[in-house]
């Protein structure tokens, strides 16, 4: 320890507590001084400095009291400390009012607190009322409190409680900076309240006085409320000075003589002059030559005058400014000066000029743009458009288009709603290809780019791509469609099949593929040329499309080959046969092309998914194989790749098997007449089936089914025996020169015991062999040429005549015709009906005569056809002009007639 003597008789010994207390006092004083300097001596920072001085004075006095060695000296320092401590509550209360929005109302209360606090402090310092004597502890002297000390505590508690009440009210009612400051001061007050423990030594409790630490905590926490938040006393004077200094606009105030009295920093920067250069300068030095009368105009004005002016800078450059000038008046309302508030207008002026130029360029771009440009509302009102836009939509002028609602330009409201939905979601739509409506309701394809502006305004551009779209569609169409018929080509058809099979796998419903080939189409091209052939293909394609549902697909693979895709057929696949029969009937109807009546037929192969394959290639191959089997079985029919399990052909076959036992089959006979005399020389036996419903079914509807089952041979045997017996009865009536003509099926003709079967029928009926003539088609004869040749020879040996039916429609060669032992050729009716071109007909008659064969012409329906055949020495004729197929009784009536209908075909004498 060190002894210090500050006056005679006074000695001090500074121990730990005195040094710590003194150091705390110095630290608090430094903090307060820093706040005062940083706050630029504002009133709140001054109040905080007073607060820290009071705390520092209290602690310094008590530090000297702890170090004093004489009781009288310690008592003196104790009373000085109480005087300084008495200033703490009013200083804290006054500081707190600065955070209160209603601080003006608290000013008188603050003054009262100062009066009470200082009065109590002065009393404590000058009288022994509160501290009459001192106590001695091991760490030094400490005041002995009297009963009156309670008054000091009550005053301090009342003032501090009032301050805390204000802080709590501010904390709850405010936000932001005021809220944070009030919270910081409340926390500081809580820490400072621990300083009241120092009252214990005053009442005799030997507690170490540590109140200085609580005061230090209060100061450290409370300094944040002032230091971090820059609390400023926002008086009108302070605010006006700060506003003037921080304004971005230049402010100049002149007196009535025009001398500049006030200028802010912004005015100095704008004019390039210092504050000293402007203050005291006449206003005319910064006004342009044409602005000399401006002051006079303001004096004559009754309010604020706004105008653009030119101010002269220090370097002689002029600044375009936008000024707002008004009078500064005294208390009596008389003008004493003019205040100018100006902003640099140079940039804005350039921007306005640039904007005008931009608007002009935009208008030129808008009007002269080759693309269509428009502006409209989301509700569909067209606000503006250029001429190009109007013309794209077929309107002569833009005004005409402006009268139209935007929705009228769309074919579907959904198209516009979809575009608006995307526009409102993203704010823009780019490269939208859309089909819209012209004035004449024709379609126009556009690429549209739209942007959504403010207030629900749309701005967009459109480009007409109709021609490009047409070319693109044509290219795509040609890539996937047959050019001649417009049907899907192989690529597109396979793609449709793939899609149909995928759908069939999901639904479990079968699909069917048909493979079609036109019978004898090559002969049409050879006879009439490819142009007629192409038109025939187009007509057939149209008939195929009309024979199927809209969801089905008809394709052309090339040449005379067509395909049909049937999606979603019935569960057992039976629907395919219904469509096949419809196609056969539809295609076989005569087609008139340039006065040529063409009759074509088709053979159809059917493959079913999944029974005949699981993929496109397998199904097409299976259908192709089935088509060739249909051709082998006589053409103009359909065949399944696999015999179907459904109740269609199978049911028909079952009925046919029972029909023979029930004697439901009957024979009709069509006469064959001698072309020269008109005499009936033969009759062709034609089978009919009278089904359970009573309908007379023609052979083309049931014979393909009979070919596929065992009924065909018994049925053919029945036909042979019945026809031979019938002809024998006509012979017995005196018509012994007549012969019966029988059509042999492919399966029947390929029987090796066919000659024996026919010979047995002749023997049983008693009909001579010369009266029997069997007819086979060229394709049947050519299936197994060697077997056919052997069968024909055996028949000739028996005496049975052999005829080639439908001559000219098959694929036989003349070399085979010369080898085959045949007696007759029957010319197909299509050659007879081509009255404008009988070249082939004449050639066939001449060829047959050259080979020594009898010629029979089928399908004679007019007298002109008969006369033509007579003229070219055709031996025999058959057709509706002679007589239709008749029951046996009808033929007998015809034979008994003296010369009934036959007279019409007698040769002309003349």
Features:
disordered C terminus, disordered N terminus, 910 residues, eight-stranded mixed beta barrel, 49% helix, alpha+beta, single chain, 30 strands
Explain how this protein is built.
This protein is α+β, with helices and mostly antiparallel strands and 910 residues long. Helix content is 49%, strand content 21%. The chain has 35 helices and 30 strands. Strands 22-23-25-26-27-28-29-30 form an 8-stranded mixed beta barrel, surrounded by 4 helices. A 5-stranded antiparallel beta sheet has the order 6-5-9-8-7. A hairpin with a 2-residue loop joins strand 16 and strand 17 (561-566).
Shape category? elongated
Query: Strand percentage, roughly?
Result: 15-25%
Q: Tally the helices: what do you get?
A: 35
Largest beta-sheet details: 8 strands, mixed, barrel
Distance between the termini: 178 Å
Tell me roughly what share of residues is in helical segments.
Answer: 40-55%
What would you report as the Rg, rounded to the nearest angstrom?
62 Å
Quantity of strands, as a count: 30
Question: Could you list the spans in which at least 5 consecutive residues all have pLDDT below 50?
Answer: 1-7, 230-234, 900-904, 906-910
Instruction: Average the pLDDT over all residues and give the rounded result.
Output: 83
| Structural class by sheet pairing and helices | alpha+beta
How are the strands ordered across the major sheet?
22-23-25-26-27-28-29-30
């Amino acid at each position: 320890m060190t002894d210090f003597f500050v006056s005679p008789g006074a000695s001090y010994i500074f121990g730990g507590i005195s040094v710590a207390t003194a150091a705390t006092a110095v630290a608090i004083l430094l903090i307060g001084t820093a706040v005062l300097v940083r706050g630029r001596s504002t009133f709140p920072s001054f109040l905080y400095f007073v607060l820290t001085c009071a705390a520092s004075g209290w602690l310094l006095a008590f530090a000297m009291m702890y170090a004093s060695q004489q009781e009288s000296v310690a008592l003196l320092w104790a009373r000085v400390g109480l005087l300084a401590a008495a200033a703490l509550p009013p200083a804290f209360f006054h500081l707190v009012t600065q955070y209160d929005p209603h601080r003006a109302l608290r000013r008188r209360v603050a003054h009262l607190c100062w009066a009470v606090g200082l009065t109590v402090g002065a009393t404590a310092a000058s009288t022994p009322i509160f501290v009459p004597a001192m106590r001695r502890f091991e760490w030094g002297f400490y005041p002995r409190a009297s009963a009156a000390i309670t008054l000091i505590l009550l005053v301090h508690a009342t003032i501090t409680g009032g301050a805390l009440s204000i802080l709590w009210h501010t904390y709850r009612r405010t936000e932001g900076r005021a809220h944070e400051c009030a919270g910081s001061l409340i926390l500081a007050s809580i820490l400072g309240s621990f300083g009241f423990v120092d009252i214990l030594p005053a009442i005799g409790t030997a507690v170490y006085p540590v109140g200085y630490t609580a005061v230090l905590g209060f100061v450290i926490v409370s300094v944040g409320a002032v230091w971090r938040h820059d609390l400023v006393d926002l008086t009108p004077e302070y605010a006006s000075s700060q506003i003037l200094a921080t304004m971005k606009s230049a402010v100049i105030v002149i007196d009535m003589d025009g001398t500049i009295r006030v200028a802010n920093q912004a005015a100095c920067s704008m004019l390039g002059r210092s504050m000293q250069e402007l203050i005291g300068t006449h206003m005319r030095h910064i006004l342009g030559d044409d602005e000399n009368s401006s002051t006079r105009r303001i004096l004559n004005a009754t309010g604020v005058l706004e105008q653009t002016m030119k101010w002269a800078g220090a370097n002689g450059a002029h600044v375009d400014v936008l000024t707002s000038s008004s009078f500064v008046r005294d208390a009596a309302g008389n003008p004493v000066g003019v205040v100018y508030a100006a902003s640099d207008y140079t940039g804005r002026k350039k921007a306005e000029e640039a904007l005008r130029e931009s608007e002009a360029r935009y208008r030129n771009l808008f009007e002269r743009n080759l693309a269509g440009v428009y502006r409209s509302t989301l509700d569909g009102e067209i606000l503006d458009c250029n001429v190009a836009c109007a013309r794209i939509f077929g309107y002569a002028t833009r005004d005409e288009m402006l009268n139209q609602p935007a929705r009228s330009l769309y074919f579907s409201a959904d198209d516009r709603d979809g575009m608006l939905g995307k526009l409102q979601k993203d704010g823009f739509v780019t490269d939208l290809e859309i089909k819209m409506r012209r004035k004449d309701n024709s379609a126009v394809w556009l690429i549209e780019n739209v942007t959504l502006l403010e207030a629900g305004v749309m701005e967009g551009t459109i480009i007409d791509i109709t021609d490009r779209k047409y070319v693109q569609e044509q290219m795509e169409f040609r890539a996937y469609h047959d050019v001649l018929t417009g049907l899907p080509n192989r690529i597109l058809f396979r793609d449709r099949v793939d899609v149909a099979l995928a759908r069939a796998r999901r639904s479990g419903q079968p699909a069917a593929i048909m493979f079609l080939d036109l019978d004898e189409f090559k002969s049409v091209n050879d006879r009439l040329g490819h142009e007629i052939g192409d038109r025939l293909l187009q007509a057939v394609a149209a008939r195929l499309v009309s024979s199927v549902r809209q969801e089905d697909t008809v394709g052309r693979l090339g040449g005379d080959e067509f395909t049909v895709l049937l999606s979603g057929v019935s569960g057992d696949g039976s629907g395919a046969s219904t469509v096949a029969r419809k196609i056969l009937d539809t295609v076989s109807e005569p087609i008139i092309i340039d006065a040529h009546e063409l009759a074509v037929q088709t053979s159809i192969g059917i493959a079913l998914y999944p029974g005949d394959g699981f993929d496109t290639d397998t199904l097409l191959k299976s259908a192709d194989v089935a088509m060739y089997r249909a051709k082998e079985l006589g053409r103009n029919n359909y065949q399944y790749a696999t015999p179907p399990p459904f109740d269609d052909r199978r049911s028909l076959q079952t009925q046919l098997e029972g029909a023979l036992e029930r004697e439901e089959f009957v024979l009709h006979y069509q006469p064959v007449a001698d072309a020269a005399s008109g005499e009936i020389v033969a009759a062709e036996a034609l089978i009919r089936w009278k089904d359970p419903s009573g309908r007379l079914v023609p052979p083309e509807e049931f014979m393909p089914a009979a070919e596929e089952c065992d009924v065909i041979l018994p049925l053919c045997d029945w036909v042979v025996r019945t026809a031979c017996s019938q002809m024998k009865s006509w012979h017995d009536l005196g018509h012994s020169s007549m012969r019966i003509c029988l059509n042999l099926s492919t399966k029947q003709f390929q029987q090796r015991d066919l000659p024996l079967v026919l010979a047995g029928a002749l023997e049983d009926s008693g009909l001579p062999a010369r009266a029997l003539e069997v007819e086979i088609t060229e394709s049947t004869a050519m299936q197994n040429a060697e077997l056919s040749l052997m069968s024909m020879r055996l028949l000739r040996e028996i005496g049975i005549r052999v005829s080639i039916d439908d001559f000219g429609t098959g694929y036989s060669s003349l070399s085979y015709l010369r080898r085959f032992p045949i007696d007759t050729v029957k010319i197909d009716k299509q050659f007879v009906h081509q009255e404008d071109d009988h070249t082939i007909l004449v050639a066939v008659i001449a060829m047959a005569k050259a080979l020594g064969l009898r010629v029979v012409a089928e399908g004679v329906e007019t007298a002109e056809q008969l006369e033509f055949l007579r003229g070219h020495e055709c031996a025999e004729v058959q057709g509706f002009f002679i007589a239709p197929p008749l029951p046996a009784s009808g033929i007998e009536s015809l034979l008994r007639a003296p010369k009934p209908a036959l007279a019409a075909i007698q040769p002309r004498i003349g």
